[in-house]
């Protein structure tokens, strides 16, 4: 059969269908019809057989009827006139004593989707609502929704709407749920089905009778209901509480969604609901279905935005299985990064290290960038792994490592020593443009410490004609300019060649403009150039700390249990593989830095917008610190911190170091008040501080020389931010 | 709310297409497959969108089962439903494959018609559906003499009568009217999935078990079944552990139809199974296996004088001597540059090959008895082998199946049908442990 062309096939089938011998033998007849439907589902156009199939509809054989209906519903819209012939058979079937035949006829009558048939359909539908068989009522209720869609302009009779409302009390739970669905569609313009107190309580009471799908539907519709009193609210919550632990993930998710919308004014109740679903969500993460696992993982990511500590103890559940698809592995790695703490960091890094050599390059690169993210708090261990990976000399790994290291150094400048050592020799392995851009950036910024930097850049400049990526060219311009500032003798000649080429021969406008910009900048003199290219940066490490406080649940509650969280992945992976935290063209940033530094002696009211920059150099020895401490007068300040941080001194120290505050000494952990001695410098002052942790808050004694209130306030706000971040992470 | 459902073969052939709401055009199928083929890997993301169309798919048996929905529909519901639909198709057609779907397309259309109306899920319970489904399944299995007679492969009749033929549980549930002669059977399977990570020093770093008790019922009417679990079965971490072989799980959940009135006292589940397959109980255990993990590996990785990479693997199976693991396959990632493999295996039924696309040596062992040890020596030709490329060796992934073994020790004491069924009813209990992910670091 498949070897025949589609016209031959249709002709053949038509001959068989109209053959009286075939029609009299109902098995042969049914088989022929089966062939027609098979051809249809394989995409062959069999619409020409419509009239033959209409005849085949009049039969007592239910299987044959069903097959014919599948056909008719697909092609009815092409043959509205012929479809009128079917209506008679269908209406007759609606009187059939067998409820199955009645429901079948009613369903297909409404599935034909022909506006011209509406007048014939209304009467059987009205009768169907009062049918004694539940299966007919189910179909009839949804039939009205279909009818409404066919003739949206004319309103459905108010009597029908009333009848549908009264059918909410139907003994069959599916009829009840279908009524909700139908009313929701019919009354869409009025905001959907009205949920008042009696209806809401009726639905809640009958929730147990529904199956999983029905429960989800009811729970979703109940999200619109607002309880009238607090007592009622808590009654509903306690009634729904067992559903939070449902073994069916759809019910669990729908219940949580309802909880979150009911408790939108009660953050504590929402948070405890999140705690309750931890078990079922973790179970869904281990489900046999990969797709279900993925869905659960994506939703756990949402939950962690409000409760970062929710899954802390269960981090091992997010270790990747070796046969899992890449999209699950990447989600798991994102979660592992969130869950790292002092106790598990070694184990997690060990695990991630194993993924870096994965066959799938996307997975390998995601693992490397995950290690980089962890490196923001545990830089030494991570750098060791990352530099070890460079030894593999594999293209995609080296490229990912160089990009990761670039992002890491930007946040943790203290790692630059180790990075500079590792950079030697990478240029031979890195091939893709993203990786080369990262390498060039690093060479430009740390050029004075990488001995081979000018030679690497020279190779790039020599091969400029064959370079296709404008991004690489722009990065090359910036890197060469930066290197020229610190190593002019070695770089001058190649910079000249580079600028000449880019201005005279380059076709890409952005590259040409940037080259011209640098060329003019050089005319302004070396000091101006230095100010622009090596100007003080805003302190990005502060952004990392501030960027991660626990969000309120309401921020994401709307997207919970929708497709939204599952889709983010595409955007995220693109940004991790494609972008860097820093804009590729580094011109705009130094400009803003320039304006910042000129603004720093600004009026006090700008203090909060201008980040205070702290530095650790010159370092203080403990003896010197003690001398200064005893010598200077103290100022007392209170930092308001809701819960005093109970984290380990080490993590406090690490966090403070990120914002360039040095911890010099602290008292043993159990002593109260627990004290810690810190120091830092701003550009012209030397505040030396002591922080003492008491129960209600944090008391800070500051000693500063010379006195500068602006700097003082800035320092206190930084300190408060660090403490807030730490305490919310531990919560 | 589901707008369309379609099933595609892995090559993109349209097998089933049903439009419930007439909102999106039928070109959605083509759009979906174009999106799948445009991606580099063979693992398209679960959710893909094209304008207002949102595709959610599950992949089973080499088929894509796809639903198009609106953006605000619940992914949990859609995915659970697609999984349930595939399970129903499996129940009704016997197995889930491109061939069986092609042969039974009329049955599947009928099923879809009853399960979803106007994009709303009506019911997926096989008890309800059996009254509506009229088409009979076409079994795709070839005719086999062994199915007819009770004679075992080598004439071992006793063996055959104790063990259900493997084809028994993969026949369509409704074929009892057909040639199989109304055999009323019930299968209770305890299936566990192991997820283990063993560190390079041999320490178990992670050991999780996900388990479930699955009932597959072919009885047209079954009133009540009582499943007795181990009496020492306990749930949660806090309970005191007695002496002897207590069976413990961390968390446990039951199907809503299970009655638990005798569970607290006697560990008995009471359930009225409906026709087809359903999961009666699910449980998890993490980080506390009652016995040693089934496999341990002692690897040696070195370079020989000729610059080749030598991998000497000793694999130990720590199962009790009476049981055995089957279909064991060890995947050892090797350096990317590896060219050829020279192998020494301890018996002829094993095999090993170098798979260039997955960059790994795969060592297959069809049967691995408990308490024994197997070793293999692989010599790999790797041009430019450096000490850094040793990093690329490992971690080793094992996949295997442990028949008649449960990792938690969960057993079914008895299986009673009440009232006792008239006629011959057969009850089968099967145990199996699969490796979900079994990783050993080198």
From TrEMBL, chain A:
InterPro entries recorded: AP_beta, AP_complex_bsu_1_2_4, ARM-like, ARM-type_fold, B-adaptin_app_sub_C, Clathrin/coatomer_adapt-like_N, TBP_dom_sf
Skewed-composition ranges (Polar residues): 570-579
Gene Ontology MF term list: clathrin binding
Record Gene3D superfamilies: Leucine-rich Repeat Variant (1.25.10.10), TATA-Binding Protein (3.30.310.10)
Broad class of where this protein is predominantly found: membrane
Membrane-protein topology: Peripheral membrane protein
GO biological process terms held by the UniProt record: intracellular protein transport; vesicle-mediated transport
Residue stretches making up the Beta-adaptin appendage C-terminal subdomain domain: 612-724
Biased composition (Low complexity): 594-603
Subcellular location: Endomembrane system
Residue ranges, annotated region (Disordered): 567-604
This protein's UniProt keywords: Membrane, Protein transport, Transport
Family statement: Belongs to the adaptor complexes large subunit family.
Protein name: AP complex subunit beta
Gene from which the chain derives: AP4B1
């Amino acid at each position: 059969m498949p070897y025949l062309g589609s016209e031959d096939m249709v002709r053949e089938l038509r001959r068989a269908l109209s053959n009286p011998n075939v029609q009299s033998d109902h098995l042969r007849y049914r088989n022929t019809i089966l062939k027609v439907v098979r051809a249809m589902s394989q995409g062959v156009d069999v619409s020409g057989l419509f009239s033959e199939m209409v005849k085949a509809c009049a039969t007592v054989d239910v299987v044959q009827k069903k097959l014919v209906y599948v056909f008719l519903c697909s092609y009815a819209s092409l043959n509205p006139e012929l479809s009128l012939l079917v209506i008679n058979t269908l209406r007759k079937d609606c009187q059939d004593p067998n409820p199955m035949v009645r429901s079948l006829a009613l369903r297909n009558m409404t599935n034909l989707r022909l506006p011209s048939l509406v007048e014939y359909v209304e009467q059987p539908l009205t009768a169907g609502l009062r049918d004694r068989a539940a299966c007919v009522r189910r179909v009839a209720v949804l039939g009205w929704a279909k009818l409404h869609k066919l003739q949206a302009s004319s309103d459905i009779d108010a009597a029908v709407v009333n009848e549908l409302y009264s059918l909410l009390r139907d003994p069959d739970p599916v009829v009840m749920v279908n009524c909700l669905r139908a009313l929701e569609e019919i009354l869409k313009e009025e905001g959907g089905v009205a949920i008042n107190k009696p209806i809401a309580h009726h639905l809640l009471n009958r929730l147990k009778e529904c199956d999983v799908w029905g429960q989800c539907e009811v729970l979703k519709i109940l999200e619109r209901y607002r309880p009238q009193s607090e007592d009622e609210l808590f009654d509903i919550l306690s009634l729904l509480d067992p559903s939070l632990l449902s073994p069916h993930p759809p019910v669990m998710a729908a219940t949580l969604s309802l909880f979150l919308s009911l408790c939108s004014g009660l953050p504590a109740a929402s948070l405890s609901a999140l705690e309750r679903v931890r078990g079922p969500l973790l179970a869904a993460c281990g489900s046999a279905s990969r797709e279900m696992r993925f869905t659960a993982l994506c939703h756990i990511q949402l939950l962690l935005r409000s409760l970062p500590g929710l899954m802390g103890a269960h981090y091992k559940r997010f270790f990747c299985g070796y046969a899992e698809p890449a999209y699950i592995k990447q989600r798991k790695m994102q979660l592992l990064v969130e869950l790292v703490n002092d106790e598990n960091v070694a184990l997690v890094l060990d695990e991630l290290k194993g993924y870096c050599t994965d066959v799938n390059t996307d997975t390998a690169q995601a693992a490397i960038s995950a290690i980089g993210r962890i490196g923001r708090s545990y830089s030494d261990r991570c750098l060791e792994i990352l530099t070890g990976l460079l030894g593999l000399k594999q293209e995609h790994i080296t490229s990912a490592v160089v990009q990761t290291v670039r992002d890491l150094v930007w946040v943790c400048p203290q790692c630059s020593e180790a990075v500079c050592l590792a950079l030697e020799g990478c240029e031979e392995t890195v091939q893709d443009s993203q990786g080369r851009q990262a390498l060039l950036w690093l060479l430009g910024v740390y050029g004075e410490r990488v001995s081979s930097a000018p030679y690497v850049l020279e190779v790039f400049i020599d091969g400029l004609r064959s370079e296709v990526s404008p991004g690489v060219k722009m990065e090359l311009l910036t890197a060469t300019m930066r290197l020229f500032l610190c190593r002019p003798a070695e770089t001058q000649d190649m910079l000249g060649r580079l600028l000449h080429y880019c201005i005279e021969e380059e076709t890409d406008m952005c590259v040409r403009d940037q080259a011209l910009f640098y060329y003019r900048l050089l005319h302004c003199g070396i000091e101006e150039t230095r100010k622009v290219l090596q100007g003080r940066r805003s302190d990005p490490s502060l952004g990392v700390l501030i960027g991660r406080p626990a969000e309120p649940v309401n921020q994401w509650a709307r997207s919970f249990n929708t497709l939204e969280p599952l889709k983010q992945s595409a955007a995220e992976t693109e940004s991790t593989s494609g972008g860097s935290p820093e804009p590729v063209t580094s011109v705009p940033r130094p400009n803003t830095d320039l304006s910042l530094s000129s603004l720093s002696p600004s009026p006090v009211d700008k203090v909060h917008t201008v980040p205070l920059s702290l530095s650790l150099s010159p370092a203080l020895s403990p003896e010197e610190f003690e001398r200064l401490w005893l010598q200077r007068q103290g100022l007392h300040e209170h930092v308001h911190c809701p819960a005093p941080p109970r984290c380990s001194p080490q993590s406090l120290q690490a966090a403070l170091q990120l914002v360039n505050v040095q911890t010099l000494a602290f008292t043993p952990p159990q002593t109260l008040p627990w004290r810690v001695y810190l120091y830092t410098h701003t550009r012209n002052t030397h505040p030396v501080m002591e922080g003492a942790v008491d129960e209600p808050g944090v008391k800070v004694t500051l000693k500063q020389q010379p006195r500068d209130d602006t700097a003082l306030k800035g320092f206190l706000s930084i300190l408060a931010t660090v403490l807030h971040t730490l305490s919310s992470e531990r919560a | 709310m589901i707008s369309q459902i379609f099933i595609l073969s892995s090559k993109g052939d349209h097998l089933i297409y049903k439009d419930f709401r007439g909102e999106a055009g039928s070109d959605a199928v083509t759009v979906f497959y174009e999106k799948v083929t445009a991606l580099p890997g063979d693992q398209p993301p679960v959710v893909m969108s094209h304008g207002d169309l949102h595709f959610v798919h599950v992949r089973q048996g080499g088929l894509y089962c796809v639903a198009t929905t609106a953006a605000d529909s619940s992914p949990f519901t859609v995915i659970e439903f697609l999984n349930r639909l595939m399970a129903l198709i499996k129940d009704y057609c016997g197995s889930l494959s491109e061939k069986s779907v092609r042969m039974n397309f009329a049955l599947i259309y009928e099923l879809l018609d009853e399960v979803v109306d106007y994009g709303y899920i009506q019911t997926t319970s096989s008890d309800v559906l059996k009254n509506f489904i009229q088409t009979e399944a076409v079994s795709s299995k070839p005719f086999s003499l062994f199915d007819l007679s009770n004679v075992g492969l080598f004439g071992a009749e006793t063996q055959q009568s104790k063990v259900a033929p493997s084809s028994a549980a993969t026949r369509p549930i409704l074929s009892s009217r057909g040639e199989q002669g109304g055999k009323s059977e019930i299968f209770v399977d305890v299936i566990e999935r192991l997820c283990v990570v063993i560190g390079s020093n041999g320490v178990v770093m992670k050991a999780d078990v996900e388990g479930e008790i699955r009932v597959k019922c072919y009885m047209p009417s079954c009133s009540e079944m009582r499943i007795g679990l181990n009496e020492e079965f306990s749930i949660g971490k806090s309970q005191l552990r007695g002496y002897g072989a207590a069976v413990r799980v961390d968390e446990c959940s039951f199907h809503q139809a299970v009655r638990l009135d005798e569970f607290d006292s006697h560990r008995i589940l009471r359930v009225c199974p409906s026709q087809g397959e359903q999961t009666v109980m699910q449980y998890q255990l993490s980080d506390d296996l009652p016995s040693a993990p089934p496999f341990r590996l002692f690897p040696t990785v070195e370079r020989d004088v000729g610059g080749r990479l030598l991998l000497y693997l000793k694999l130990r199976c720590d199962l009790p001597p009476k049981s055995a693991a089957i279909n064991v396959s060890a995947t050892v990632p090797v350096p990317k540059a590896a060219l050829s493999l020279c192998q020494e295996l301890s018996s002829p039924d094993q095999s090993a090959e170098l798979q260039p696309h997955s960059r790994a040596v795969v060592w297959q062992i069809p049967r691995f008895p408990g308490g024994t040890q197997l070793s293999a020596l692989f010599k790999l030709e790797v041009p430019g082998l450096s000490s850094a490329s040793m990093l690329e060796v490992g971690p080793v992934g094992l996949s295997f199946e442990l028949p008649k073994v449960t990792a938690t020790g969960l057993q079914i004491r008895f299986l009673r049908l009440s009232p006792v069924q008239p006629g011959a009813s057969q009850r089968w209990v099967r145990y199996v442990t699969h490796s979900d992910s079994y990783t050993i670091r080198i």
